[in-house]
Task: inverse folding
């Protein structure tokens, strides 16, 4: 990361040395292909095959993982040595037989066929189904080796690390290697591993650059005169990723502050900002605090002439502000030990660390990570560009110097989701890039990146700094909203980080990973969205628009996080209303999401802090919360705990929702001995009672009463179609407990909507838009605050119930097919004298059922009855005719008959 002129010079200086690292290769061989098998022998789980002058070797690692090596002319070599592949356990039991035209090497799970006429390989499962097959023998041309595989009729391909702008590769050619192209089409942090929807993956054990063409047939080429590949056969993509990361290393578990927002700048000798000093970073940290903006760490130099001073004092000052100190380096780590002892906890490498090849980059990542761990009790936490297979165990992969724009947002979405398919759990780019950008693109970019595990803002190179509070309102408030949401979701994200450390599967996922049987999920129809964990579907806005089209929701029920509106997948949502403060965000029905409410830093948590569960009941579901001390390496000695929330609810409609929270199993330093719990249980019906451990909790009648009570529950019908809020007193974490809500309902499906005649002003509004201030319940439209209107009055008649609005207005109400008609008296409120022209409309499930003629301040009120049929959702709309001045439209005595 450096000014563009310096970056270009560095790239030019390095280009010749980095694209093709020095390799230990056998003597040159002429172009050719593997010929007929002339020899075959076995030595335990290792099999030697001769094909003329070519030699091949098959080595089994597990009963589903094996390695194929081929040397066209000479001995076997291994340029990666022990850099990438970790020591493995004892090999499995294998057997072989001569099957006439082929040899068959088998474990209990797979059989590798070795065809004799011309050395060719094919893999089958134990049940006889084919996994993959070479359509012609391995080939070489004197400079490169190529494998050619048959492509299945619907086979999809993923992986290859960060491929900018792409996540699904069928019909595409991807490059593996360093190119310093940070933009769409580039491939920083690419890796020589791909996986197939047929249930297998391939890792080319090499430092050589490669080209993978996923056409028919598939050809994968590496620029070296040797062939060396590991194959993984699994039940699905997650299994394959797990096997690959067992071989090359599981993703590291970052410290919890690594999942918070980061800030990066150059303070000492900054040519773009004038002379400053390292301690000036504390002034920026103070601005984060003053603006109530969560921030977990700061990089205070850049390594390109921007050094540092007063390091220990800076580290101490940041820690006092609940932040950690980070530094980055252009090309050296010689001072890391002293820096860590002074307080450094984050190390960022730059492109110069690619040096003379991928090995140098990988070694740098390992050294930076280990340097933090060797000189402190903290976990290693590094960031690196242009890394290689194995870097997932030591760093966040960062995609380089980019410029903020709408297009930048667009192509980054599939890039980071797709990288997860290569076992890379932490992938990210600077918020709104390092150059360019705008208040609008910054806000939109921060929204969706709040659902990535790792994120930072880069300052000092764009025309103005890019901290999230720099642009003023409304941007500051919106950015704060999403950073606070990211903070509250730390226990959810940290649990997924722990899962990545166990399984290799990162938190950010393309839909194809969770819904492999849905053919849409591997296509461009799902390219610009992703899953954050299994429960959140994020569909970023990547254009200067307040409407998002083409949101694909796979099978199941999906709940709009902001409104509570439900969608039944598979479906495509068009016309989604997404003003600047709204990220299209959906929660999977059945989700139980652990949260830390109301924090700006993980350090805000105390021994008495509550754990919150946001529950979207439908059928049977569960979530296991992972906890440890969040900072040290003690979790590697088993110092951690898990606690599971299991939800049993109706599949649809109302009934009993039961939440069983297990005891917290395990221990670690700082574990809460007891804690209160908060539950937000989404339900379109109010429960008759709520019991905790068989004991009825008190029912409270308002939010104020709920907030003041030590325990109890209340039903907020106006919150996202209805939410039951429950709080408990402190409960021992060593004790299990059960929460039961009798009469609550599942999200989605039948059961939503009113159960009888009900005033429109007493119902929750799924969405609302209003021309001036909020629409009012049982009052005329007021000013910018809630409940600041006057009594609803039409032609001298005062109405006690109704809705006061201002054109243009659109209120969405869930009726759930239960309401036969809607009645109201409509007109412009008497408080408007001399102006105002509007039309009223009732729209149900996208169809306009009734529209009024133009109504003016002089018009007599209109009494209306609108049949609704089996409408699921109804919109009450008021549209201005001409100017929007004084258009105070009232839905007086508005009632749904259900």
Result:
């Amino acid at each position: 990361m450096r000014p563009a002129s310096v970056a270009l010079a560095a790239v030019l200086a390095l280009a010749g040395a980095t694209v093709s690292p020095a390799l230990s290769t056998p003597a040159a061989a002429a172009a050719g292909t593997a010929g007929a098998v002339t020899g075959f022998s076995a030595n335990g789980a290792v099999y030697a095959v001769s094909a003329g002058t070519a030699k091949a070797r098959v080595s089994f690692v597990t009963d589903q993982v094996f390695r194929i090596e081929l040397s066209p002319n000479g001995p076997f070599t291994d340029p990666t040595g022990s850099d990438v592949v970790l020591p493995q356990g004892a090999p499995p039991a294998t057997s072989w037989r001569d099957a006439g035209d082929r040899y068959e090497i088998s474990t209990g799970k797979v059989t590798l066929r070795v065809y004799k006429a011309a050395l060719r390989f094919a893999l089958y499962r134990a049940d006889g189904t084919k996994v993959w097959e070479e359509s012609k023998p391995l080939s070489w041309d004197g400079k490169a080796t190529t494998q050619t595989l048959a492509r299945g009729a619907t086979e999809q391909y993923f992986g290859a690390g960060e491929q900018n702008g792409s996540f699904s590769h069928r019909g595409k050619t991807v490059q593996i290697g360093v190119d310093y192209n940070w933009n769409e089409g580039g491939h920083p942090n690419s890796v020589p591993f791909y996986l197939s929807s047929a249930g297998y993956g391939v890792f080319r054990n090499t430092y050589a650059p490669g080209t993978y063409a996923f056409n028919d047939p598939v050809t994968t080429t590496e620029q070296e005169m040797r062939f060396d590949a590991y194959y993984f056969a699994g039940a699905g993509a997650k299994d394959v990723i797990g096997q690959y990361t067992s071989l090359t290393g599981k993703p590291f578990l970052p410290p919890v502050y690594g999942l918070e927002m980061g800030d990066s700048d150059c303070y000492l000798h900054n040519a773009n900002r004038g002379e400053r000093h390292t301690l000036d970073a504390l002034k920026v940290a103070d601005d984060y605090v003053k603006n109530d903006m969560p921030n977990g760490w700061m990089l205070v130099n850049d390594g390109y002439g921007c050094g540092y001073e007063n390091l220990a004092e800076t580290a101490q000052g940041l820690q006092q502000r609940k932040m950690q100190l980070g530094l980055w380096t252009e090309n050296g780590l010689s001072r890391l030990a002293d820096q860590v002892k002074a307080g450094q906890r984050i190390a960022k490498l730059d492109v110069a660390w690619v040096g003379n090849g991928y090995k140098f980059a990988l070694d740098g990542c390992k050294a930076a990570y280990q340097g933090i761990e060797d000189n402190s009790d903290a976990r290693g936490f590094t960031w690196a560009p242009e890394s290689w297979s194995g870097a997932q165990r030591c760093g966040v992969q960062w995609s380089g110097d980019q410029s903020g724009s709408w297009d930048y947002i667009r192509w980054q979405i599939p890039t980071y989701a797709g990288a997860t398919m290569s076992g890379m759990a932490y992938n990210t780019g600077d918020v709104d890039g390092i150059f360019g950008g705008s208040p609008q693109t910054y806000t939109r970019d921060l929204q969706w990146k709040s659902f990535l595990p790792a994120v930072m803002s880069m300052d000092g190179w764009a025309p103005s700094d890019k901290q999230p509070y720099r642009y003023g309102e409304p941007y500051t408030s919106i950015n704060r909203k999403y950073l606070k949401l990211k903070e509250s979701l730390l226990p959810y994200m940290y649990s997924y980080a722990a899962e990545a450390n166990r399984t290799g599967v990162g938190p950010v996922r393309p839909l194809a990973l969770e819904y492999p049987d849905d053919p849409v999920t591997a296509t461009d129809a799902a390219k610009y969205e992703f899953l954050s964990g299994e429960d959140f579907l994020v569909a970023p806005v990547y254009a200067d628009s307040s409407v998002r089209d083409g949101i694909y929701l796979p099978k199941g029920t999906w709940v709009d996080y902001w409104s509570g509106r439900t969608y039944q997948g598979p479906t495509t949502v068009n016309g989604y209303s997404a003003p600047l403060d709204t990220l299209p965000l959906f929660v999977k029905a059945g989700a139980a999401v652990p949260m830390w409410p109301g924090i700006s830093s993980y350090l805000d948590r105390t021994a008495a802090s509550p754990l919150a569960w946001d529950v979207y009941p439908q059928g049977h579901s569960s979530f296991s919360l992972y906890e440890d001390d969040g900072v040290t390496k003690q979790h590697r000695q088993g110092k951690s705990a898990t606690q599971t929330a299991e939800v049993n609810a109706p599949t649809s409609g109302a009934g009993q929702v039961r939440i069983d929270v297990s005891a917290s199993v395990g221990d670690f330093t700082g574990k809460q001995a007891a804690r209160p719990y908060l539950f937000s249980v989404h339900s379109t019906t109010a429960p008759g009672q709520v019991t905790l451990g068989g004991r009825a909790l008190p029912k409270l009648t308002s939010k104020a009463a709920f907030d003041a009570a030590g325990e109890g529950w209340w039903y907020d019908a106006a919150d996202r179609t209805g939410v039951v809020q429950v709080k408990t007193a402190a409960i021992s974490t060593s004790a299990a407990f059960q929460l039961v809500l009798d009469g609550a309902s599942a999200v989605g499906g039948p059961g939503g909507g009113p159960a009888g005649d009900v005033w429109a002003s007493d119902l929750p509004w799924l969405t609302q838009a209003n021309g001036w201030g909020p629409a009012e319940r049982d009052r005329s439209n007021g000013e910018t605050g809630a409940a600041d209107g006057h009594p609803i009055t039409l032609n001298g008649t005062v109405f006690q119930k109704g809705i006061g609005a201002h054109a243009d207005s659109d209120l969405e109400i869930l009726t759930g097919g239960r309401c036969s008609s809607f009645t109201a008296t409509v007109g412009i409120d008497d408080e408007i004298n001399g102006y105002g022209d509007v039309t009223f409309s009732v729209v149900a499930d996208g169809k306009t059922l009734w529209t009024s003629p133009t109504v003016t301040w002089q018009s007599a009120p209109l009494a209306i009855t609108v049949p609704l049929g089996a409408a699921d959702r109804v919109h009450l709309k008021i549209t201005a005719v001409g100017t929007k001045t004084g258009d105070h439209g009232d839905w007086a005595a508005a009632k749904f008959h259900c």
The chain has twelve helices and 64 strands.
